[in-house]
């Protein structure tokens, strides 16, 4: 199994002060930000992030998204985040700086690049595909963080393979959008998400981002990518099981 290193940064350097009040609209996301409270409205749903405490040792935020309420505390000294979601057991997340991927098990042949007609992989979780063509046959090499396989396209599996390809493309698109608004917090956020439980709700993911100093808008973009990962896993399993 291949482990791909991602850059690490000193998380304390990522925190920034929010000393201005302003209203704006970014990609249909309405935002209002004050010194300690930021509110965004997405498709009529209001999400509010409030900084409860911020000092040299910790940054504590509260995020309310619909009926979801989450408090995240970033321990700046020990570089870990405690996430407390309503009616769930609190979890402490220690950042992971390596992405697990089974891509290497496929032995993708660089010399055969001329036959490759499409390929993509996400930057955070380790999903991807490579499609090559030989005569009239399409060969798919698909992989997830924990498994990989090669499939010859046929009438029985084409739909599942295409669905997996679309899910990877969607995940990659959300990640690019997230990076665009995360700025310098990007590497730290990804390191935390790699260690976070897959059951986090939207307020939990947004709380992690805002605890590290990112905006609620950035948190929502990260949530879209985080949720898209679940679809990738489902589509991969469907393609894996279909002969």
From TrEMBL:
Residues 1-23 form the signal peptide. Residues 74-123 form a coiled coil. Keywords: Coiled coil, Signal. NCBIfam families: Geo26A_fam. This is Uncharacterized protein. It comes from Brevibacillus laterosporus (Bacillus laterosporus).
């Amino acid at each position: 199994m291949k482990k791909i290193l991602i850059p690490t940064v000193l998380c304390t350097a990522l925190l920034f002060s929010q000393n201005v009040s302003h209203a704006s609209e970014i990609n249909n996301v309405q935002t209002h930000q004050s010194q300690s409270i930021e509110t965004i409205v997405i498709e009529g749903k209001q999400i509010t992030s409030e900084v409860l405490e911020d000092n040299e040792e910790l940054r504590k935020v509260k995020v309310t998204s619909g009926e979801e309420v989450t408090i995240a505390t970033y321990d700046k000294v020990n570089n870990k985040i405690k996430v407390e979601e309503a009616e769930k057991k609190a979890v402490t997340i220690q950042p992971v700086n390596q992405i697990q991927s089974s891509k290497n098990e496929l032995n993708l042949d660089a010399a055969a690049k001329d036959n490759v007609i499409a390929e993509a992989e996400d930057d955070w979780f380790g999903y991807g595909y490579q499609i090559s063509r030989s005569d009239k046959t399409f060969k798919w090499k698909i992989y997830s963080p924990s498994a990989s396989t090669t499939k010859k396209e046929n009438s029985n599996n084409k739909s599942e393979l295409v669905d997996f390809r679309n899910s990877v493309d969607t995940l990659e698109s959300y990640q690019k959008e997230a990076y665009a608004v995360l700025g310098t917090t990007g590497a730290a956020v990804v390191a935390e998400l790699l260690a976070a439980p897959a059951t986090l709700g939207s307020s939990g993911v947004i709380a992690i981002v805002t605890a590290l100093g990112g905006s609620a808008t950035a948190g929502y973009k990260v949530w879209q990518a985080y949720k898209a990962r679940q679809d990738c896993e489902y589509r991969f399993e469907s393609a894996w099981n279909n002969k």
